[in-house]
């Protein structure tokens, strides 16, 4: 059986994530539920970079990763009252992030293909009718046409 690794045995990436978890108060979500808004800011500062990195690893561009991370924390606000601190908050946030990613992928699949605003609507007959044959409405030129 191997002994648990100390923070100094970890890679720089592992150490920084370990230190963030060690510095983050364990009861921040409980304090937020009690009305401490600063506690939520602590949660975001401690976990947002890792959530953004997760979305970037999954293939999101930087802007989308930021938007999706924001959605994770919005969902945390919505579910804060029902969260049970049985495990680490980081794992809970990763689960929420996974669900946000799945929802994002589903929305991307269900979006219709983009279409040019200059293109005729689908199914219209103007797509095959030459422009010279389409009806146009012109107002008669009335300026200067009345006898004086």
Describe this structure in words.
This protein is an all-alpha fold and 148 residues long. It has one domain: Rna Polymerase Sigma Factor, Chain: A, CATH 1.10.1740. The chain contains five helices and no strands. Helix 3 crosses helix 4 (62-79). The longest helix is centred in the last third of the chain and has 22 residues, at 89-110.
Q: What's the CATH class, please?
A: Mainly Alpha
What structural class do you assign from the helix and strand content?
mainly alpha
Q: Report the CATH topology name.
A: Rna Polymerase Sigma Factor, Chain: A
- Strand residue percentage: under 5%
Q: Low-confidence segments, ≥5 residues, pLDDT <50?
A: 14-25
Radius of gyration (CA) equals 28 Å
Number of strands: 0
Total number of helices: 5
Helix and strand run: HHHHH
Identify the CATH architecture: Orthogonal Bundle
Q: Can you give the helix content as a percent range?
A: 40-55%
Give the distance, in angstroms, between the N- and C-terminal Cα atoms: 109 Å
CATH superfamily: RNA polymerase sigma factor, region 2, helix turn helix motif
Mean pLDDT: 75
Specify the overall morphology. elongated
The domain tally reads: 1
